[in-house]
Structure formats: structure tokens, C-alpha cells
Amino acid sequence: MPRINALKQNHEFHRVYARGKSAAGPELVTYALKSRRRGSGCRVGITTSKKIGGAVERNRCRRIIRAAYDSLCADVSGDWDIVFVARHKTTILKTPAVANAMSKQLTLLGVIRKT
Prior knowledge:
The chain has 115 residues and is α+β, with helices and mostly antiparallel strands. Helix content is 37%, strand content 20%. The chain has three helices and four strands, in the order αβββαβα. It has helices at residues 10-19, 55-72, 95-109, and strands spanning 21-24, 28-34, 43-47, 80-86. A four-stranded mixed sheet has the order 1-2-4-3, sandwiched between helices.
């Protein structure tokens, strides 16, 4: 399984927050911005705040979001910078439920083409 290209720098996250489009649900919030780098593919960042819980809960949320994105990454078309923000409900959901919500949000934002 190939490794996900990650957003790592704070200014990259802030650029997506400021200029990107967003879609929100009780499971997670998704921000997406068309990437300036041609041919680089999608870059993904995951944010979990301390409001979610302790380190165990935050890490579980990141694992669930990463696994959900792995199941959808083949459907993503184009070069995008995407940031997923975990919400409290993410801690109690399983990966398929988060993947379903993520798919709806990415389709709404135009990252995944409707078929």
C-alpha cells in the first residue's frame, strides 16, 4: 500500500483553511483546495484537537480517518490539498461510517467525480 502524501507545514494547513472550500458533518470536517503543484497528486493533512480527548482517542481518530481515506484515494481525481478535522463523534465510529461521510463530503467539494 503506497504511503499518503502528507501536508506537514503549518502554512500549508492555513492556506487550505483560508482559500479552500469546506464541508462539515457530525463525523468530520473536510477542507479542499486545488493544488498549485501540477502532477503532485493529492496531499492530505489530518487535525485532531485536544477537545477530542486524550492522546489515545486522538490517535485512534487519525488512524480511522487515514484508513477511510485509503479506501477512497483511488476515486480522487486531480491534484488537491485536503485537510480532515476530526470531531468528537469520530472517536465512537468505525472506519466504514467515516469513509461514507468522507465520500459524501469529497463529492460535494468536487474532489471525487460523480459517476
